[in-house]
Specification:
This protein has two domains: about 260 residues, Queuine tRNA-ribosyltransferase-like (TIM Barrel), CATH 3.20.20; about 90 residues, no CATH class. The protein is about 40% helix and about 20% strand. It has 16 helices and 16 strands. The strands form four sheets. The protein has an eight-stranded parallel sheet. The chain has a three-stranded antiparallel sheet with strand order 1-2-3. Strands 7-8-9 form a three-stranded antiparallel sheet.
Length: about 375
């Protein structure tokens, strides 16, 4: 089944980097795009209109957590994610497989799926490729993800053949997912696995392409590999993926990770880094990372970033934001998260402009050093 109401357009390319748009039933997303993480249907502390104000176009919610509470039946009864949450734009739902796999001490994985103990009440739950698709269809997301098996690319996992077995199982689960689909208005993305083994990545990408998904994700990365290994893994898979299908790098979210992914042809990103780091006083700026809790900002009247147009930078000083965060005042976490998310959206806007001007390589080189620096 191919999803209805979706269309990927490529407007410009610069090497493997590309910019364009993805049309969905609930709006068009300009790519490359960053998806703020709304795990339970909300980006922590931020309302839908605030996310619109920083130019977010698509949000990500977590299937496992919404299945646990409030339950997909309630979300469906209230009009799907758009009706339930107030965010009327596109939604992508993660399968929840990564979250479940993190419960290693209370989880059993076999060919049927994943059985685990709920963190809420201790009851046994089972997720299968079929049930994960059914849950996401009830949630009404525009883009759903298949259930996959994620294994960290450690020397031990390579030596024991764990990554190869997980890659093959993910392909079998992906095939079951295609047969479980019933909702033509929902796109479904397959997930490439294979650790840092480029041959496994290529095999996984070819297998998923033969199954014919609406888009493809690079999974199982950001788990300890180097930047070079990650880029090589993504590049290897890209060669076997359709040009006119969206590509998504799952869970990678430092600013330099975004630029690395864009250079390898990635269209979508998500991560909790901007909101989580903001709550802890780490702010991304055009001059590097600002550690707002430092004493030297106690009486600093400057905005977090004079080059930023967000509400935080337009209305509040570094000194005030430092005070709020040090006092654990909820407003401080909100303002910091709002700024970081706006920084991400602006960074991708600059990247899109650079691609259109055929200047992405020089743009990336300039920002690569700046983004990891310590800001004054």
């Amino acid at each position: 089944m191919q999803a209805q109401g979706f269309e990927m357009k490529i407007a410009a390319t610069d090497g493997a980097a590309r910019t364009g748009s993805l049309k969905t039933p609930h709006g068009t997303v300009t790519t490359p795009a960053f998806m703020p993480v709304a795990t339970y249907g909300a980006v922590r502390g931020l309302a839908a209109h605030e996310l619109k104000a920083i130019n977010a176009e698509i949000l990500l919610a977590n299937t496992y957590h919404l299945h646990e509470r409030p339950g997909e039946q309630i979300v469906e009864e209230l009009g799907g994610l758009q009706g339930f949450t107030g965010w009327k734009g596109p939604w992508l739902t993660d399968s929840g497989g990564y979250q479940v796999s993190s419960l290693a001490h209370r989880m059993k994985l076999d060919e049927e799926g994943v059985t685990f103990s709920s963190t809420l009440d201790g009851a046994r739950r089972t997720l299968t490729p079929e049930s994960v698709i059914a849950i996401q269809e009830a949630l009404g997301s525009d883009i759903a993800m298949v259930l996959d098996e994620c294994v960290a690319p450690t020397p031990e996992s390579h030596a024991h053949g764990d990554i190869e077995r997980a890659t093959e199982r993910t392909l079998r689960w992906a095939e079951r997912s295609t047969r479980a689909r019933k909702r033509p208005q929902q796109a479904v993305f397959g997930i490439v696995q294979g650790g840092t083994d480029v041959q496994l990545r290529q095999r996984s990408a070819r297998g998923l392409t033969e199954l014919g998904f609406d888009g493809y994700a690079h999974g199982g990365l950001g788990l300890g590999e180097t930047r070079i290994q990650r880029c090589e893994a993504v590049a290897a898979a890209r060669e076997s993926l359709p040009d006119l299908s969206p590509r998504y790098l799952m869970g990678l979210g430092r600013p330099v990770d975004l630029l690395d992914g864009i250079a390898e042809g990635v269209d979508f990103f998500d991560c909790v880094v901007p909101t989580r780091n903001g709550r802890h006083g780490l702010l991304f700026t055009s001059q590097g990372i600002l550690h707002i809790k430092n004493a030297r900002f106690a009486s600093d009247s400057n905005p977090v970033d004079p080059n930023c147009d967000c509400l935080t930078c337009g209305s509040y000083s570094r000194a005030y934001l430092r005070h709020l965060i040090r006092c654990n005042e909820a407003l401080g976490a909100r303002l910091a998260a709002l700024h970081n998310l706006r920084f991400y959206q602006h960074l991708l806007s600059l990247a899109r402009d650079a691609i259109e001007k055929n200047q992405f390589a020089s743009f990336r080189a300039e920002y690569d050093e700046r983004l990891e620096a310590k800001a004054d």
